[in-house]
Amino acid sequence: MSILVVAEHDNKALNPATLKTLTAAQAMGDDIHVLVAGEGCADVAAEAAKAAGVAKVIHADNAAYGHHLAENLSALVLSIAKNYSHIVAPATTTGKNFMPRVAVLLDVAQISDIIAVESADTFRRPIYAGNAIATVQCAEAIKVITVRATAFDAVSAEGGSAEIETLDDVFASDKVSFVGEQVAASERPDLSAARVVISGGRGMQNGENFVLLEKVADKLGAAIGASRAAVDAGFVPNDMQVGQTGKIVAPELYIAVGISGAIQHLAGMKDSKVIVAINKDEEAPIFQVADYGLVADLFDALPELESALS
Amino acid sequence: MKILVAVKRVIDYNVKVRVKADQSDVDLSNVKMALNPFCEIAVEEAVRLKEKGVAEEVVVVSIGPKACQEQIRTALALGADRGIHVESDVAPDSLAVAKILNKIVAEEAPQLVILGKQSIDSDNNQTGQMLAALADMPQGTFASEVVVDGDKVQVTREVDGGLQTVELTLPAIVTTDLRLNEPRYASLPNIMKAKRKPLGVKTPDELGVSIDSKVSVLKVEAPAERSAGVKVADIAELVEKLKNEAKVL
Ligand SMILES: Cc1cc2nc3c(=O)[nH]c(=O)nc-3n(C[C@H](O)[C@H](O)[C@H](O)COP(=O)(O)OP(=O)(O)OC[C@H]3O[C@@H](n4cnc5c(N)ncnc54)[C@H](O)[C@@H]3O)c2cc1C
């Protein structure tokens, strides 16, 4: 049987999480189809067709899918679900939103946020904020799975030459409509995919002080993240939250500044390759996971770090 | 209107869970349990809607062993009016929970159902979406703002790119994110009052829902531990180590 991967994209470009999800899908089977549903997303379909290992791209283009509303997207996926043994999507906020609907309407359980594929029906996933890893076996006829993208390498974006098939069916719920969005425009790399992430916590004291992090981030080409406390206090927007219930990151280098290291924060970053912590409290739990810890006042350390990198 | 809130009994968020030696599960004996934080936010939102005059009644439902009546009482102490306990000693998976909740929705006919976006134990983030599809209701997940207006509700959602606002026709499902509200503390008089509020008990059997799961847990392991590294004296040493030892700069 074939495997369906539902692509994550913004109608312009494929989100890198999709390429990583393809790696997970390849461990489940080999006839891989990618559904690109959106509005004016022909470029994305073409991009998906070039990804390594993709046999077919299904392109559904309609205003109903433009904002990836769960009601419409899940109905579309459901309409082709019976052709597949596995339906897979990245565990982004879009994937988390529509996939459980697909599962329940197929009357199957969903396996969320997998970090490893042991076999076509056995997967590993973190539970309890990553403080335990469960190996689960799924006996459902169709396996509905979301993938923690940071746990997988990306397939090559080039090298494939899949056929593109158009799907014209339109599913548009009259019970939901898109009103608007506030999308943070940033020149910086995407937090979930950046090579370096520097995050600030409550210790930053206010939003203005995040400039100190930005200056360091500029030098490193880093994305900027935050703890929940910094987001709750209104220093920075919600899309910057790293953690169990925010974004999961696993960069080469993660620098935690003025962050204590609560388990919920660690859940989102402890798979980073190298962790640096800057905190004035030498007892802060973040030091227990940091490869390099600096006990210092961040208001001294950040300007020094910026000039040391110049 | 009537609001139904689903709540779950979970490990307290401050507790770092340990895995059992035989790797069968995590060890929850003698561990502090509490209302799932996202469910607490859901209860708070419902109670606020009642206080604003938007809702007349707030009903809470919880599925699990007898002990989860404690969490129902907590929700009643926060201001919910009535509780429903669906008793099951086996923890049902999200699919079964959604089916049970769908039966309760059919009985209670709420205009709004509010759930937490995820429970901090299984971290699945599924139930609200599953219930929405089963009950054929539109969904506003990961909500940071909920505005009811006539027969519609506008939900602002925390998404990866920022915020998205959708408008749903009632009846609808909302799942809560962290920034929706800051739950109140229950006062002592309200805790006392909650003891006398009605609480009905049902079983999955009575509701005609099987809780058998097709997903089996083969083992539960502790994650690879990171060990603490070294403390550096100053920024110069840090940068030197990142360059020459870790080779990430
Ligand atoms: C259901 C739930 C979900 C959650 N999800 C998340 C999540 O996804 N992500 C997340 O991050 N949290 C999450 N949390 C919150 C988490 O429990 C912590 O409250 C939060 O991570 C604390 O943020 P913080 O480290 O910035 O703040 P604090 O714990 O207050 O730590 C601030 C740190 O800054 C240091 N500091 C202060 N001033 C300075 C200075 N001048 N120089 C250097 N250091 C300084 C202090 O020593 C302290 O260690 C969640 C909580 C719950 C209940």
TrEMBL record, chain A:
SUPFAM superfamilies per record: Adenine nucleotide alpha hydrolases-like, DHS-like NAD/FAD-binding domain
This protein's record includes keyword Electron transport: yes
Q: Where does FAD bind?
A: 202, 227-228, 241-245, 258-265, 279
Which Gene3D superfamilies does its entry note? HUPs, TPP-binding domain
Any one of the GO BP annotations: fatty acid beta-oxidation using acyl-CoA dehydrogenase
- The answer to whether UniProt assigns keyword Transport to this entry is yes
User: Bound how, and how many: what does the cofactor note say?
Assistant: Binds 1 FAD per dimer.
Q: InterPro entries, per this entry?
A: DHS-like_NAD/FAD-binding_dom (IPR029035), ETF_a/b_N (IPR014730), ETF_a/FixB (IPR001308), ETF_alpha_N (IPR033947), ETF_asu_C (IPR014731), ETF_asu_C_CS (IPR018206), Rossmann-like_a/b/a_fold (IPR014729)
Molecular function per GO: electron transfer activity; flavin adenine dinucleotide binding
- One Pfam annotation, family name? ETF_alpha
Co-factor(s):
FAD
| Origin: domain of life | Bacteria
> Can you give the residue ranges of the Electron transfer flavoprotein alpha/beta-subunit N-terminal domain?
3-182
Query: Which keywords has UniProt assigned to this entry?
Result: Electron transport, FAD, Flavoprotein, Transport
Family, similarity comment:
Belongs to the ETF alpha-subunit/FixB family.
Q: How does it assemble?
A: Heterodimer of an alpha and a beta subunit.
Q: What does this protein do?
A: The electron transfer flavoprotein serves as a specific electron acceptor for other dehydrogenases. It transfers the electrons to the main respiratory chain via ETF-ubiquinone oxidoreductase (ETF dehydrogenase).
Question: What PANTHER family does the database record attribute to this sequence?
Answer: ELECTRON TRANSFER FLAVOPROTEIN ALPHA, ELECTRON TRANSFER FLAVOPROTEIN SUBUNIT ALPHA, MITOCHONDRIAL
- UniProt name for this protein: Electron transfer flavoprotein subunit alpha
Q: Which organism is it from?
A: Aliidiomarina shirensis
Question: Lineage of this protein's species?
Answer: Bacteria, Pseudomonadati, Pseudomonadota, Gammaproteobacteria, Alteromonadales
From TrEMBL, chain B:
The terms under GO molecular function for this entry are: electron transfer activity
Give a Pfam family name: ETF
Superkingdom is: Bacteria
Could you give a single Gene Ontology term from the biological process aspect?
carboxylic acid catabolic process
Q: Which SUPFAM superfamilies match?
A: Adenine nucleotide alpha hydrolases-like
Q: Which cofactor does it need?
A: AMP
Tell me the PROSITE patterns matching this sequence: ETF_BETA
Q: Which residues form the Electron transfer flavoprotein alpha/beta-subunit N-terminal domain?
A: 23-211
Q: Which key words are in the record?
A: Electron transport, Transport
Q: PANTHER family attached here?
A: ELECTRON TRANSFER FLAVOPROTEIN BETA-SUBUNIT (PTHR21294), ELECTRON TRANSFER FLAVOPROTEIN SUBUNIT BETA (PTHR21294:SF8)
Family note: Belongs to the ETF beta-subunit/FixA family.
Subunit record text: Heterodimer of an alpha and a beta subunit.
State the protein's purpose. Answer: The electron transfer flavoprotein serves as a specific electron acceptor for other dehydrogenases. It transfers the electrons to the main respiratory chain via ETF-ubiquinone oxidoreductase (ETF dehydrogenase).
Q: What is this protein called?
A: Electron transfer flavoprotein subunit beta
Q: Which organism is it from?
A: Aliidiomarina shirensis
